[in-house]
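Just curious: can you write a single protein's sequence together with how it folds?
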Amino acid sequence: MISQRTIVSVLVGAAVAVATIATSARAATQNDVPTYNGSLNGDRYSTLKQIDRSNAAQLRPACAFQVGKVGPMQSSLIERSGVLYFTQMDDTFAISATTCRKVWQNTYVPIGRKAGIANRGVALLDGTLYRGTTDSHLIRHRCGDR
């Protein structure tokens, strides 16, 4: 039979583990935006304090980037270490977050029948970028690689 003390110890241990994971997920995303929800927790919370109600109206575009193709753009931007990652159709882009200059671009040539015309973007985990393709394949890029 499991004692009440054992159950309490397990529950306290689980609570500490959850708090540690939540704290490290927030800490890991104080400068980066690894998902469209902001943090890995998906809570859309930001610890950044530079923009608030008093200065939000003063925001202006810093730069612009042309993908060079016409077509649907349904990708969210993902940011890691000052680089923005996104997709359009069969292209994956990495651009500087401060200058909008292209760091790299990868164009996938579909080898199968296209299942759709839009791509929802990239996912980032442990320094690796993932994206689906229009012909139902998965591509992986190391951040900084093509």
Summary: The helical segments are 4-28.
